[in-house]
Fold each of these.
Amino acid sequence: MNITLVERLYEELLKIRLIEEEISYRYSEEKMRCPTHIAIGQEAAAVGVCASLNKNDYAVSGHRAHHHYIAKGGNIKKLIAEIYGKETGCSGGKGGSMHLIDTNVGFMGSTAIVAGTIPVGVGLSFSQKLKHSENITCIFFGDAAIEEGVFYESVNFAILKNLPVLFVCENNQFSCFTHLSERQPQNRKIFEMVSGLGIDSSECDGNDVIAVQEKTAQLVNKIKKGEGPKFLELHTYRWLEHCGPNYDDELGYRTINDIKKSRENDPIIILEKKYPELIKLKKHTILKNLKTLTKNAFKFAEESNFPNQEEAYENLYSEKL
Ligand SMILES: Cc1ncc(C[n+]2csc(CCOP(=O)(O)OP(=O)(O)O)c2C)c(N)n1
């Protein structure tokens, strides 16, 4: 693999990890007042996929969206300011962690409703098709989104219209505290079940950023050639509690063995083991730059103002009564 690309992938993984750790560390200060769904452990899925998209390709996501926003190139200062509820945030401080958008880099939004952005993403890809655009839309969602009816309607429509869309299911095995085995029939593989709808479907180790990048590049290439929608299931694991900055290992809904295994499958360590020499050479500088980036983003957020009270009803779906 191209060394510059490996370096970029490593830097993006570390960027997400550092920012997520800083959010978690500072959360108890109670200056960030929105619920946050931290993506530590799932960085490689976002980084690998987004590395195979370009700026003009679109992406949408759900409640756990920081890693997608960052990997798609979203502005970091605006991300942190948004979580702080400040007017300089990417959604003007009115959205919080679960409602992120940065149209400058094709990150077209995230929402808290599980599967809510799946039809939005399909609509975006329909618009790309109608405009004869060369770009595609990537829709990120979790394994629980497969349990929503709108997922099937959206995939059906995408197949019917041969849309330029990549569905990415980040399978971390859990919907909040409930494991897949308690929600879906035994031995079902999501990507196999989805392929029954008539869409080209595959799976990949979602903790191996190189594997994800290469797999996505193949799929994106096919989609851009007009071969229609694709579905990709990425196997990964969430390290922290479902929502919030803490570990919840003591709750008992995940086995100690699985938790231990997830640390062995740390996406950062996997990449470091593949390219030990390169990483030894670059790690210090990359970390130093990222620490500055993170520090500046939090300073920017803290120093920004809250939105004006008079603007409370602007940019909302419903009109002021
Ligand atoms: C339509 C809908 N139903 C239920 C919820 C409550 N809820 C929030 S997150 C979540 C679990 C989501 O799991 P998954 O989609 O796999 O993503 P993950 O949290 O694992 O990243 C649920 C059930 C919701 N936000 N929207």
Note: The first strand starts at residue 58 and ends at 61.
Amino acid sequence: MTHTHRSPSRISRRHVLAGTFGIGAVAALARIGIGTSFAEETTEAVTLATAAGGTLPIPDLLAATDEDGVSVYALDAQTGTNTTLVSGKTISTAGYNGTFLGPTIQLTDGQSVRFDVTNNLGEETTVHWHGLHIAPSNDGGPQNTIEDGATWSPATTVNQGEACTLWYHPHGLGTTADQVALGLAGMMIIDDGSDANAALPHDYGADDIPIIMQSTAVTTAGAFATANNNFTASTSTLKFLVNGMSATDETPTLEVAYGRVRLRLLNASLTDSITIARSDSASFTQVASDAGLLAEPISITSLRISPGERAEIVLDLTAADDAVKLQATVRNTTNGTRYTASMLSVTSTATSAADDLPDTLNTITDIDATDATTRTFTLSNSGASMLINGIAGTTMDIMDANAVMTTLGAIEQWTITNSSTNIYHNFHLHDVPFQIVSVAGAAPTGANTAWRDTIEVAPGTSVVIKMQFTDYADNEYMYMLHCHNVIHEDDGMMLALMVMS
Ligand SMILES: [Cu+2]
């Protein structure tokens, strides 16, 4: 196989914020399989996967080192610059193990892991494992500050119970938008060992492709925007990035050697929602929400993904005579269309069609909330001050004083109300995924019937969710619940949750 089409010179010319991406080892790593021994893997009669080609950069899989049965993943948060995205501007960036974004971490349920996160940013940071079911002391929230030059080493046994697409990013108090904007974000993939996940495309970099989408703006000063008015300033340059490549300047291409491809879509934007559709308006298949596989594949023609959310889709390619082209319609917090980007063009060299997808992907057992503790959370704003239940969670004292207290094993049902006049919010809960009871009074449909950890709440409406707080309790460390418009989060739309033993 050849990778010359991803040579560094081509990449830089295409305005890629290159750092960790790459290139040669992707398929080999995918074959060896992080988390399984080489011996196990070689006893299976596997067909070598052919790495996807095209101009789309694909983050490397992060290789682990083994320490007495613990897979250790090393992340180095570091700074960089980019001089190619906007001509004449030197943009400050940051990434993990590179200068923009980070490698993909692929984990398997039951695996013992440790993350060694070293901070070389020159300022405090944290790393939160968005969607990962993990103890609050390891969750990476504002209590897990990593000083400049220090290394933080949370360890856990992967305990997700769902095949899903998660991500990792900073989660400090008041600094999340600033640091995510620089490029501090990476994908995390969980394999639950299920037959359904195995029946879906799952060869990383070959037919299982991460798609990290970022709606960004570069200011006249040459910085990534971190405030709403930067995005609307006529002097800012808007760029839609896909795995760090500017789709605004040139549509990224993906050439797959298979009849079907799985795209793991992540909206890593600060504030914008993204609606994905095929440019020919044809249908495509969604197989996973942000927190797990759907009960069954669903056919859709558009997919709206709010900031922080993920979704997995599969594209059947052999039926298409031409490239399957995806477009992204990007909307601001008041739901106005900012722009539309031609985000990806996918082609296949396969000559035979893929096998049928499974009819059933997941068994989602309904949480019995008959005796649930109920709570109400009202998201509102007073000008630029962003509030939950009237509180702006901007200091640790406020977090402590207003922590939501629950107990291990508790089942709860929450009504999340957006009382802002015209601003969209999207609610994210740490620790456990939730099930949706209703959206604006109606029963959930589509991907809203699957596990979720982030849900958009339209102005003047409510979403009712239910969840159970399993496995992890701590009387000192807190989880967070917040709006995942991270500008709103930094402006106070965040509270703490304590699960007491
Ligand atoms: Cu919000």
Note: Residues 425, 483, 485, 488, 493 surround copper (II) ion (CB under 6 Å).
